[in-house]
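Much of our argument rests on the idea that a fold can be written as discrete symbols. Part of our work consisted of pairing the sequence of a single chain with a tokenised description of its backbone. No coordinates are needed to read the tokens, only the vocabulary itself. The record that follows shows the chain in one-letter code together with its fold in token form.
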Amino acid sequence: MDTVYAVIMAGGRGERFWPLSTERNPKPFVPLLGTTSLIQDTIRRLIPLVPAERILVSIGEAHLGIARERLPQIPSANFIVEPVGRDTSACLGLCALHLEKLDPDAIMLALPADHYISDPVKFRSTIQKGIRSLPGATGIVFGIVPDRPDPSYGYVRAEKPAVCADAWPVVRFVEKPNPKQAAEYLSSGRYFWNSGIFLWQNRTLLELFQKHMPGTYRGLQALRPLLGRSEARAEIARIFSELERISIDFGILEKTSGLRLVPAEFAWDDIGNWASLARALPSDALGNVAQGQHVSVESTGCLIFSDAGVVATLGVSDLVVVHANGKVLVCSKDRATDLKRLVSLLTPQLL
């Protein structure tokens, strides 16, 4: 366990949670589920398993200040700055270079900063199963047992072993199937949601870059001698910005054999937009979910968030109503996934 390091990916902007989440205060750092932020919850779940000195946070340069301020338990040297956003493959490749300097035998546990996980104890138990199952595997994927045929998630098919075991051999990945396929996957019992949480030997990950993403691997080789040199910041940014922009799922995992899947013991949600937040919070008798003060009359199925003052609803259904940072958002729940379109039209002054 002393060689396990956690890499928290916190580079996203979270535009789908405007007006609470902003360019200066992105999604991982806002209190969507209570009084603490999603990234603080992530670290709190991890620390009994992985101490703070072995937790690395990958962050965009614009958010380094807020990360250091809000996460004082993380050593300053453990913030890995992405010069520009290049998706999760470049993010984890850069982190792998830092990890190999810290510990040549490091095991990397990679996880997003902004997921909802119901039970921290069961989360750690699931991760421990993955660590025990890693010998002999290329890597471990943590799969979520689906509770609905949701076509918005990526799926992983795994074969249940004949002998009881913690990890199942991975057969294939399926990216966002159509609704009919999602229903078939749910009924089969062989498909899991891809949680975006992965475990592997750090050196194995670098070997997978060399095999499946040779262009990115050459870029990582060029970056290796430059890390830690302040005078090389411009060159690091140039090389990193030229790395392929692709997820680790597409770039490596879907091409890799020998992966195993550990079914998660906890409830999970990636909380991708305001409407999905309702799945992680309790509702009233009419299906309304509220964070902050809410007065409702004959309103059903609404998601209400207020960081100051009362939001009142009368005779409406299936709305998202958000009052945050002095701004108001109103949209139908079924359009919450399109919020980026609205945010793109707002001027910097309005954001």
